[in-house]
Design goal:
By secondary structure, this protein is mainly beta. It contains 1 helix and 26 strands. The longest helix has 11 residues.
Length: about 325
C-alpha cells in the first residue's frame, strides 16, 4: 500500500496517481511544501563572511544557521530554483565561483561552476527550474554582460546578451516572473528586462525614483516586483507590475532605512534582511505583496551583516499557478 507524499520536500514512499494528476493539472508542478529563504556571504563587521542563514517563510521567527559558502566574500548575488539555492561571485575575494545549496537539506555549499569573469555586485534570478540569469556587475569596472546557467546540470555560465547599460550596485535588486527577468537599481535608475525563453539583449522597462540605487534588494510575486532600501540608507520600497512596462511607484517603507539589504520571496510574502545604516543590521522585515505599507518585523539574522545575497525556493518565477 504505502503512503502518499504530496510534498516535493519528501520523495520517499509511494505517490497516489490522483495527487500527481491534480498537482500537474492545477499547479503545473508538484507542490513544494514550505518555502525556505537563505542569506549567505556578505560583510560581517568589516570581515568577509561565508555564513548561510535560513528561515521558513510561512512562519515568523529568527534565522537559523544553514552552513557555509565555499568562499567568503562581500557582494555576491543569490537566486533559487525549487530545489537549489545559488550564490554567484564575490567582491573581497574577486571570485568567479558559483556555489549552490539544496534548500531542504542544511549543510555547506557545493561548487556549481564559474562566472565568465571575477564578478560581484550583479543581479541574479531564476526562471522556473530551468535557467538562472546573472546580469551586469563589477569585474572590477561596470559590465553589461548577461550570463546564464542551466539549473539541472553543474557547469560554467553561457552568454545570454547584454544589459541596456553597464551597471553594478552592491548587489543590486532583481525580480522575476516565470517568463521575465527584471534587473533594477545599481549604478543607474534604469530598470531592464529580458524574456527567459529567448537569448538576446535587455529592453528598457522603466525607471526607479532615484538615480543612484546602489544596494537595493529585490523581491517578487508572479505579478509584482519590489525594490527596497539602497544608497544613503533609504527606507523606500518601490513597486512595479512585472508584465507592464513603466516606472516604479511607491509601495511603502522598511522598518529601518539601510543599504546592502538582501531580499527573498514566497508566493505571497517578501523578506528584506540585513544591511547597514551605517552599522550592520540583523533585522528581517516582512511585506505582503498585495498590501502596500510599512514592513513588519519577521525576526533576526544570526549575525548583523549586509552586502550579501538571499534566495528562496518559492519566489515569483516558481510560484504555483492558480
Amino acid at each position: 500500500m504505502g503512503n502518499s507524499y504530496p510534498d516535493r520536500t519528501n520523495f520517499n514512499g509511494v505517490w497516489k496517481i490522483n495527487e500527481l494528476s491534480k498537482n500537474k493539472i492545477t499547479h503545473n508542478n508538484f507542490p513544494r511544501g514550505s518555502t525556505r529563504a537563505t542569506w549567505g556571504g556578505g560583510n560581517d563587521d568589516g570581515q568577509p563572511s561565508n555564513v548561510i542563514d535560513y528561515v521558513t517563510m510561512e512562519t515568523t521567527g529568527n534565522a537559523t544557521d544553514f552552513g557555509n559558502l565555499t568562499v567568503a566574500g562581500e557582494a555576491p548575488n543569490g537566486s533559487g530554483s525549487s530545489t537549489r539555492g545559488f550564490y554567484s561571485g564575490r567582491q573581497a575575494s574577486a571570485s568567479n565561483v558559483i556555489d549552490y545549496v539544496t534548500f531542504m537539506s542544511t549543510g555547506n555549499a557545493t561548487d556549481f561552476g564559474n562566472l565568465a569573469a571575477n564578478t560581484s555586485q550583479h543581479a541574479a534570478v531564476n526562471a522556473s527550474d530551468t535557467r538562472g540569469i546573472m546580469a551586469g556587475g563589477a569585474a572590477p569596472g561596470s559590465i553589461n554582460v548577461i550570463q546564464f546557467i542551466t539549473i539541472a546540470s553543474t557547469g560554467n555560465t553561457t552568454d545570454f546578451g547584454d544589459c541596456t547599460a553597464a551597471k553594478y550596485g552592491g548587489p543590486y535588486g532583481s525580480i522575476n516572473s516565470n517568463t521575465r527577468s527584471i534587473h533594477g537599481a545599481g549604478s543607474s535608475n534604469v530598470i531592464d528586462f529580458i524574456n527567459f525563453s529567448t537569448l538576446g539583449n535587455a529592453v528598457d522597462h522603466g525607471d526607479l525614483p532615484t538615480s543612484n540605487s546602489w544596494g537595493k534588494a529585490g523581491a517578487s510575486s508572479q505579478t509584482r516586483g519590489l525594490f527596497a532600501g539602497g544608497a544613503a540608507a533609504r527606507s523606500t520600497i518601490s513597486s512595479i507590475t512585472i508584465h507592464s512596462s513603466g516606472d516604479a511607484i511607491d509601495f511603502g517603507d522598511l522598518s529601518v532605512g539601510r543599504r546592502g539589504v538582501a531580499g527573498a520571496s514566497s508566493r505571497t510574502r517578501g523578506l528584506f534582511g540585513g544591511g547597514d545604516n551605517p552599522a550592520f543590521k540583523n533585522e528581517i522585515d516582512s511585506i505582503t505583496f498585495t498590501s502596500a505599507g510599512t514592513a513588519a518585523d519577521f525576526g533576526d539574522l544570526t549575525r548583523p551583516r549586509g552586502r550579501f545575497a538571499a534566495n528562496s525556493n518559492g519566489h515569483g518565477g516558481l510560484a504555483l499557478t492558480s
